[in-house]
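Researcher: Here's the sequence for the chain we discussed earlier.
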Amino acid sequence: MNSEKNTALDARTKWSYCIGATGRDAAYALISMYLINYIQYTMKLTSAQFATVSAIMAGCLIWDAINDPLMGIIIENAHLKQGKFRPWILLGAILNAIVIVILFTVRPQGWGFVVFFGFSYLLWGMTYTMNDISYWGMLPSLSSDASTRNLLVTLMSIFVCIGQFSIAGIVPTVIAGNAINAYRTVALVVALAFLGFQLLVYFGVKERERKDSDHKISLKGMLKIFLRNDQLIPAGIAFFLFNIGSNLLIIFGYNFFNFEFGYSEAGNLIFIFTVMFGLGTLFSQAIFAAVTKKFSRRKILTYSIVLISIGYILLLGYDYVLPKNVILLNAIGFLIFFCQGIFNMTMIVMINNTIEYDEYKFHERHDSVISTVRSFAVKFASALNQAISALVLIISGIYAISQKISALEIEVGRGSMESEEALATANSYIATVTTRQTFILRLGMVLIPMIVMLTSYFITKKKYKIDEEMYDSMVAEIASRNA
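Model: Thanks. This is the structure I predict for it:
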């Protein structure tokens, strides 16, 4: 079948695919944003045990990053009646939903929890990979038309943002003072939502038929596909660095608000800040297709990184040089999230475009394998982020104080303390934190992101060559060749 007969994407497939992102990204947000906070503020663990948990998370995420291309090989080589991607999407969602409930429900103590967590978190990563690689691998296979693909990325990113926003905003408002029970309830609701939205993808998306290569892809073959693609390598490295920087603000955000504003007040303030995250990211998704028509990808990245840097500089000076004003803080957050959203979508399009580049140069198309680079970069970045955040929390002494709060939450969970008393006592603990401790937290949240995102931009600027004109030329050549 002609690989270019795909510009007219039916509405059912388009909307089922894009809306399906809502539940899966809500589930991912719960784990990536709040699992470590759940452990930090509801489990009684020593610094050594917490460091071990963080190391396990980093190790599992690194394995996940390695496992992503392996899953891509499995998808590429499998020939299932239900389609190339849909069976893996559904199976991964079912298994991952079960693991999510287990992670927030089963609570052994001490080193027993560390062992349980290591096994469960490994299962979470492997089952999510099954869904993630197949879901993202489906995106470039639906269309090679540039405008259609930009529209898909835009729509899907809007629903990704809705899923993430719903969790990032709601969870902090219901957790403090009854964290154990609240996390358990949220996990169950999110797991069911994950499964429901992925059922929509399974039954609503019509996969495009296309001719697969006759030979099976091996691990050696996969590495060859990666290494021969001189545009995929810089795009993947740049995307990896960008994800390190963009996610650290979210990872440190919960502790930042707790220790800047107090445990009892942080939840509502986090919700407002998350609204800025939602509005900034949604606005970036909504205008992305229009922006790509007016500016080249290179210019979009340049403007974005300049504004991102300004935002982080302002955040570093907040309450030190700038006034401690909540409106100002949220305005800074909106600026950062909006520009990071634009940068992120541009990078996703650039990675997807290397699929056509590979087909153009080597007469082969490997959607699933090349698409794993995005997931590989996200998870490898998450592994480093986890190590960075644990190190900063322990070195600053903030983890030790948060463990006192954790003891209060455990007492509330047992019914031996009222929520109001726990909140008041937690605030008294936070009042003992020094400016030096909060400044160390601020450096981890601001300085590291600025450095790695600037590095990401300069790598892309110097090494990535597929501009709009080159991409259109490649697609025309591929169409002519197939005709």
